[in-house]
Amino acid sequence: MAETKTEPIITFKDVSKTYILYKNDQERFKALFFKPRNPKTNKALNGISIDIYPGESVGIVGDNGAGKSTLLKMITGVTFPDEGTITVNGKVAALLELTAGFSLEMTGRENIYLKGYILGLKDSYIKEIEDKIIEFAELGDYIDQPVRTYSSGMKMRLGFAINVNIEPEILVVDEALAVGDASFKSKCKAKINEIIESGTTVLYVSHSADSVKEICERSIYLKKGQVVFDGPTEETLSVYNEDKEAEAMKKKKK
Amino acid sequence: MLLCENCANFSYCYLITKKLVIYKKVAYIFTILKEHRGFEKQIFLLAKNELIKTYKGAVIGPLWAVIKPAFTIFVYWFAFTAGIKTLKAIKVDIGVNTLTFDFFTFMFVGFIPWFFILDGIVQGAKTLRLNRQFITKVKFPVSTILTYTSLSRLFVHLFLVIILYVYILFVVGPSWYNLQFFLYCPLMFFFFLALSWSTAPMSAFSKDFENMIVSIMSGIFWLSGIMYNTYKMDPPLNFIMLFNPINFFVNGYRNCFLYNRPFFEYKTELAIFLAEFIVVFALGIFNYNRLRKRLPDVL
């Protein structure tokens, strides 16, 4: 592992992402055929460059709309940047939208295979981890029922179980994640900690300073699509808090 | 080609390349192919589930796949032979002979590809919007959504073709030319799949585009030779009709089952169709690649 330390596992190079805001449906229709002339845009990410190395746990802090979720969605390969390049050197497990992306008519077991294929895994490998996933999700006989019949908690458990059992190299976690009842929650926490301790690279998005401090040694503070500070968690959090206080003062003055 | 042990999908395979660039401008033509690679089994499974989704929950379930088209055919037959009373037989020139076909048989053979085409265009345009959970929430080979949904429609089509063929065996009798079905059917599948590479992302982008397609299609029926013989129209109309690719398939199915005519006999028709196929294919690849990366943002 020591020699790979030199090569980053995730690289963002001058990555920008602009959402075009169409005034109305007419504009949207026109945009199909012509490039819109000076459209209203929202720059979600603005020239971001980040290197993340194997084994690191990186926290991402920032207010709503700072570009955190856009950043994570790019790492998982859901959205694409307009400019710049993103390099990801490993299997990504995303604990973001756990109930999404199932084929509802398929059984839980078939969905395990579907997700596995999407992640680029082979039959033999999925077969190996299949039992582990089913056991972890605590679905029992429901595993061979269509996912449509699952409760939202069951769907979440299955989604979680698949993601953590594929032995990811990169784990993307949103702290706002809710996974069923208290006992399962603690099981999830334990599993996440186990993955982190095993040397997996972790990206952790959170609003609570305490949990970031607990897990991540390094943190990135995003604001309006730009990196304000990138460094040890303690320093980043103090910059973040100062910034917030300054903003609050400004508001008060107004 | 180096293949790794754990990986089926080489576009996102980290084991072969060790270095995976998500945002990479790959040659346009290969993006769709790549997305299908290693996903074949899943496509079949998803197509099967698409069928279950469509027909489950109804008391007579899959029978609806037959009842709906049967009723449509009945209504048209009723209106034209019992109501308007003018259409009893259709004359078609084949080589030097003019053959007469029973109107119902003529219409029946034309309707079977039409049902597939109608669904292919209308549903094909709506597919991405209906399957948005695969686009906005997870990484998914998006073009395979189009493939598995049209595959599920192909299954229904094949089922109808079997019913048609039983009818043909009794009324017209078998012929070697029937085998041309195995040429026309895949060609039809791929033509309308390639068309949906353009229409589906565009409909996802703009609901107006989707509505436009849906409203055009009811008119297109009467501009295609399902109820009449386009070869017999007054010139230049009979020539203009060759540019409608739907006619190519409707007439093609009749070549197989009624006319006993080889597909290459009418060369102008074939040439025009092939040219259109290339254009639709190229446009499809262009539009899909142009809009693919914007899809998660607009859906």
State the helical fraction of chain B. Answer: 55-70%
| β-sheet strand percentage of chain B | under 5%
What proportion strand of chain A? 15-25%
Largest sheet of chain A: 6 strands, mixed
Low-confidence stretches of chain B: 1-26
Shape of chain B: globular
- DSSP helix fraction of chain A: 25-40%
Alpha-beta classification of chain B? mainly alpha
Oligomer: heterodimer
Descriptive overview:
The complex is a heterodimer of chains A (254) and B (299). Chain A is an alpha/beta fold. Chain A has eight helices and nine strands. Chain A has one domain (55-81, 90-253): 3-Layer(aba) Sandwich (Rossmann fold). In chain A, strand 6 (170-174), helix 6 and strand 7 form a beta-alpha-beta unit. In chain A, helix 3 (108-118) crosses helix 4 (123-137) and helix 4 packs across helix 5 (152-165). Chain B folds into two domains: 1-33, no CATH class; 39-298, no CATH class. At the A-B interface, helix 1, helix 2, strand 4 and helix 3 of A face helix 3, helix 6, helix 9 and helix 13 of B.
